[in-house]
Design brief:
The protein has 94 residues and is an alpha+beta fold. Strand 2 and strand 3 form a beta hairpin. It has a domain of 44 residues: Alpha-Beta Plaits (2-Layer Sandwich), CATH 3.30.70. The longest helix is centred in the C-terminal third of the chain and has 8 residues. 19% of the residues lie in helices and 15% in strands. It has a two-stranded antiparallel ribbon. The protein has a two-stranded antiparallel ribbon with strand order 2-3.
């Protein structure tokens, strides 16, 4: 007999999952942040870090693009943006 399957938050820290993120990723605007830490609490992968106002960001190697952080932010200081193709990102750096 099988019991319920439970996934622990932050479980992707063992495996990078950013390569299969959905079509968008969070962009932390770092303008109106009040450091409420709601984004940190709601992130299912625990990939958001920061301590003071306007310092929060996420590790895109682990972010799945769920958008929970943008949805919960009371100041709307996080927005979901389209994922850029890898080739376009490389061209910008060169």
């Amino acid at each position: 007999m099988f019991g319920p399957l439970i996934a622990k938050p932050g479980s992707s820290r063992k495996n990078k999952t950013g390569s299969w993120r959905i079509e968008s990723r969070p962009k932390f605007l770092k303008k109106d942040c009040i450091a409420c830490r709601m984004c940190v609490v709601i992130c299912p992968e625990g990939c958001i870090s920061g301590k003071e106002k306007n310092t929060f960001d996420c590790d895109l190697a682990f972010c799945k693009g769920c958008g929970n952080c943008a949805y919960i932010c009371p100041k709307k200081d996080i927005e979901m943006v389209s994922e850029e193709p890898e080739a376009a990102t490389k061209n910008k750096k060169e």
